[in-house]
Protein: Metal-dependent hydrolase
Amino acid sequence: MWPWGHLAVAYLLYTASTRFRFDRPPRAWPLLALAVGTQFPDLVDKPLAWSVGILPGGRTFTHSLLVAALFVPAITAVAIHLDRREVGVAFALGYVTHLFTDVPPSVFAGDLAGVAYLAWPLVDQPPEDPVGGLLDAILHYYAMGPYEVFQLGLFVVAALVWYRDGRPGLERLWSSIERLETRVRS
Ligand SMILES: [Zn+2]
Structure:
């Protein structure tokens, strides 16, 4: 799935969960953690596979449920220790959402090779198209098709819900930019 597809699904789930648990929309810092969590597996695995060559594929180490089963409780425990429980919960939700939203549509047609990454390294992975570094991947890995258009649609829906939620995080973003500008000028 494309980055904005991951972000859209996670935002819709997270705003539903904050409405259910706290009867309010999401807050800025957990929302930032959610956004980072939604991209985290790709930010780790793809550079380490395609640029550095440490990992055997772009969906391996942090895309594995085995690693997530260790990592998610650890990050949540750290967040609770820092008295930032909701930040940890949001990151974990974003991260886990990424893993399941990476499942390709072909799986629903019976091609189970598309979910092999969830059991890395226990299960043999299907061969990955050769990628000549991260830039090449960005330029050529993703192609536009009906599934990608669907993801763009999801992003628009999530953006509308975010707007209706009162645009959480936007005010804090502007104030951070203003503070940065003041610091640069002084
Ligand atoms: Zn991914």
In short: Helices lie at 3-22, 28-51, 65-81, 85-101, 134-140, 146-164, 170-185.
